[in-house]
Amino acid sequence: MISLALPKGSLERRALELFAAAGLDVRRSSERSYRGTIDYAGMTRVAFYKPREIPSVVGSGSFDLGLTGADWVEETGATVEVVESFDYSRHSERPWRLVLAVPSGHPATGVADLGDGVRVATEYPNIGRRFLQDAGIGAEVIVSYGATEAKIPELADAMVDVVETGRSLRQNDLRIIETIRTCGAQLIANPAAYADEDKRAVIRNVARLLRAAWVGPSHVLLTVRARAGDLPGVTLAMPGRSWRAGSGLSDEDMVVLQGVLLRRDVPETIDVLLSAGAVDVTESDIGILASNTPGA
């Protein structure tokens, strides 16, 4: 019933890992195959496309569902429903960034320092052009088809491109002067398919499975004990997704709270909780965390 477009190339490995962790293993005859299957009721066919192509093939109705980068959804302007977002990148559990970069010796410290006529190379001409226009810069936007760093300095003075670690920029003697936005992977659906009750049920089930698989390894459960008198301050310091778990067994004045947050935010959050009056904080791993709340 549901057709799925998955990314080929930079996002491919993480996409396959996410689907496998959700119990939705993609089977292919070889790693080079552009067709696959998933043993899941309602999933009819799977195909692989470049991430930049997926918003268009989903928006056009050629596929019901797709996984791609938020940057390509914005760049293409395709009409799709964003069902879920996952803030991971190729090598980490953090989103990637779309940035404006210049040679290390360039005097600019921000986009406002680039004068009219500046040549900017990018694989994202629509995003780049809007960003520069909003900044009041009359730039010449040069479409790049990969290896954008190589366009500087002969073909361009600056570049708009994605970075994850920044290693490639440093190796090419470039530096970031503006972060345009952060981007993660997005599960997108064709609007007509999402409006169909039967298809939407399958899509939402797939989305829940994927989110549960992503949240588990990258998040932790914090169990916090606090005195009732300190509860207002401790509650404010708890993660956004938290609840009251109970009270102490022998001390009714002791309140137990629990919350889920990203693993990378644990050290800072614990410091804030203890400063707010928490008696102690316990961190626990999460296996699979399922939810009926989209984006929760």
Brief description of this entry?
The protein is α+β, with helices and mostly antiparallel strands and 296 residues long. The chain has 3 domains: 2-93 and 184-195, Periplasmic binding protein-like II (D-Maltodextrin-Binding Protein, domain 2, 3-Layer(aba) Sandwich); 96-180, Periplasmic binding protein-like II (D-Maltodextrin-Binding Protein, domain 2, 3-Layer(aba) Sandwich); 218-285, 2-Layer Sandwich (Alpha-Beta Plaits). 28% of the residues lie in helices and 34% in strands.
3D architecture notes:
It is a single chain. This protein is of the alpha+beta class and 296 residues long. The chain folds into three domains: 2-93 and 184-195, D-Maltodextrin-Binding Protein, domain 2 (3-Layer(aba) Sandwich); 96-180, D-Maltodextrin-Binding Protein, domain 2; 218-285, Alpha-Beta Plaits (2-Layer Sandwich), CATH 3.30.70.120. 28% of the residues lie in helices and 34% in strands. It contains nine helices and 16 strands. It has helices at 12-21, 54-59, 70-76, 125-134, 167-171, 191-195, 197-218, 231-237, 266-275, and strands spanning 2-7, 26-27, 35-38, 43-49, 65-69, 81-86, 96-103, 119-122, 140-143, 158-163, 174-183, 185-189, 219-227, 241-247, 254-262, 278-285. Strands 2-3-4-1-5-12-6 form a seven-stranded mixed β-sheet. The model has no long low-confidence stretch (mean pLDDT 90). InterPro entries: ATP_PRibTrfase_cat (IPR013820), ATP_PRibTrfase_HisG (IPR001348). GO terms for molecular function: glycosyltransferase activity. Residues 50-210 form the ATP phosphoribosyltransferase catalytic domain. Keywords: Amino-acid biosynthesis, ATP-binding, Cytoplasm, Glycosyltransferase, Histidine biosynthesis, Nucleotide-binding, Transferase. It is found in: Cytoplasm.
